Amino acid sequence: MDFFTEIAEIKADIKQAENRTILSLFNEGNRAEDFSLTAAGLFLDYSKQNISQDELSRLIAWAKENQLVDKINSMFAGDEINNTEQRAVLHTVLRAPEAVKRHVLAEQTSEQVIATEQQMAKIVDDVYQGKLTSSTGAKFINVIAIGIGGSYYGIKVGLSALHPYHSTGLHLHVLANVDGAAVVEKLAKLNAATTLVVVISKTFTTQETLLNAKAIKNWMLAELGSPAAIEKQWFAVSSNVEKAAEFGLNPAHVLPMWDWVGGRFSLWSAVGLPLALAIGNDNFARLKQGAYQMDQHFKTADFEQNMPVLMALIGMWNRNALHYQSLAVLPYDHALRALPGYLQQTDMESNGKSVSKQGDKLAWATAPIVFGQEGTNGQHAFMQLMHQSDEVIPTDFIVALQGTSDLEEHHKVLVANCFAQSEALMQGKTLPQVEAELKKQGMSREEIQRIARHKTMKGNTPSNTLLMQSLSPETLGAILALYEHKIFVQGVLWQINSYDQWGVELGKHLGEQVLALMNDGNAEHQMSPSNVNLIKTFVQKHSLT
Ligand code: F6P
User: Fold this and answer.
1) Which of 63, 111, 223, 261 places its Cα 20 to 30 Å from the Cα of 305?
2) Is residue 486 located within the same domain as residue 510?
3) Whether residues 141 and 246 fall in one domain
């Protein structure tokens, strides 16, 4: 039976699903305990979701009927589940023990993976110990990582989340966007003689990354006056070693990536080098260990107690049964402020599709629109809409029991706000409740009549609350792996390929046409009159007034 027939059947049986309150579900058994679990150092409370035990059980049974167990094993075994690019999806093997690497990968490949890990660790040690210095002999002080998308977001989220673990004394900078202002901003902070550059691009053809790398290269050559600077101070991470060599990089400084590691899942590879340079090899190993623990949980736990599977099924219930279109990811943790952005790529670039693996138009919705920012900031911005618009926006709250500062009162207020928001989204406030409250405050009947309806809140907004003891390399690794696997399960059950990203091709192609037309007004193009006009305005630098 397909998911949507199943959903329709479940909803037919419990036609009150749309009308019941989540709060009423707490009358069922010991919901707070029954709808929570611990795995890989994380605690998930999903009891504020609008789903009953019976509905969840039927979805779990349905997932089993659809061979989810086999699909999970197939991914970990290295089958070519990325069917449109005929590739395996094996980023998980990068964080597994060597024995697993040797078991899963072909011998030559496993040797290359292990050698690359060792090379990466040696670079980190040698830089830290001053064995690897700049072309001027100076110790490195700054590192700039140049990359975009999956060659940026993972590093970004790691650097900000693990700031307390920055232990090498190096200052890390990341450059992604092709806006010259970003280049200027970074260069103002760098000294060419003490800067190590890591260019990260799986294809080594990404326009933004190559232009940024060229700008930094020209700057460094101008500052230091010798090609030895590029030879000694530049590293690259790419699956396209030839292109990296063409750019003028020392081939011995190019660390490989493999086609079975998707860009948005590549932090565990040498793409993580800038992060390892900041936090050291031991902490980078701890990050991978945390992710590996989540992998093991995902592979072995019964679905009834499987965190990624439960989050995936509930996410599909919200998306396809209750027709909620978005997912808010709200880390109540300043250090996790880059997580929503990271998950926008991981989720929306994986499952933002409408054609099945076989190429058939899907009859159901897929990835939600993922957004968010650190709490409590959202409470002073978009959460007004979440409380009082008609949009129901399922939310993932993420918070640590222990903060990373010693400001205990701050952390208590932060956590209190996190818990309060999930409760407010669920409980809301009805008109009678508002009226009674205002009456109790002594407000006149006329005043209550005037203002009460403006103060009602819809409630019944579902949420997960994900807790951890503290944000550490292990818990960050577990969080990232948790979402990777949630997205995998949803892709499998939505019958889509989560591992290609053809949707970015057209924009790249048209970008080249626009650039050509900017450079030559007679260039061939397929632009609309709107774009022709916009390009003309840019070229002539019309003052818009
Ligand atoms: O966004 C499209 C994309 O191909 C991502 O999947 C990838 O992470 C990013 O661009 C950068 O690609 P590359 O690592 O090849 O420069």
Assistant:
1) 261
2) no
3) yes
Quote the tokens at residue 361.
Answer: 């138009």
Of 103, 412, 439, 508, the catalytic one is 508
Whether 486 is a known active-site residue: answer no
148 lines ligand 1 (CB under 6 A): yes
263 Cβ closer than 6 Å to some ligand 1 atom? yes
Considering only CA atoms, which residue is closest to atom 9 of ligand 1? 149
Clarify whether residues 392 and 534 are in a common domain. no
Same domain, 312 and 405: yes
264-321 confidence digits (pLDDT tens): 999 999 999 999 999 999 999 999 999 999 999 999 999 999 999 999 999 999 999 9
For ligand 1, is residue 206 a contact (CB within 6 Å)? yes
Task: Tell me the per-residue pLDDT of 411-451, one tens digit each, with 9 for 90 and over.
Answer: 999 999 999 999 999 999 999 999 999 999 999 999 999 99
Centroid of ligand 1 to alpha carbon of 150 (angstroms): 6
CA angle, corner 287, sides to 283 and 292, nearest 5? 140
User: Is residue 254 helix, strand or coil?
Assistant: strand
Whose tokens are 């550059």? That residue is 197
In 3-state terms, what secondary structure has residue 542?
A: coil
Atom of ligand 1 nearest to the CA of 209: 16
| 212 Cβ inside 6 Å of ligand 1 | no
- Which ligand 1 atom is the nearest neighbour of the CA of 152? 8
Q: Does ligand 1 have an atom closer than 6 angstroms to the CB of 154?
A: no
Could you list the residue range(s) of the whole structural domain that residue 128 is in? 91-283
| Structural contact between residues 463 and 394, judged by C-beta atoms closer than 8 angstroms | yes
Same domain, 379 and 475: yes
Q: Are 291 and 344 in contact (CB under 8 A)?
A: no
| Total domains in the fold of the chain | 3
Specify the pTM: 0.97
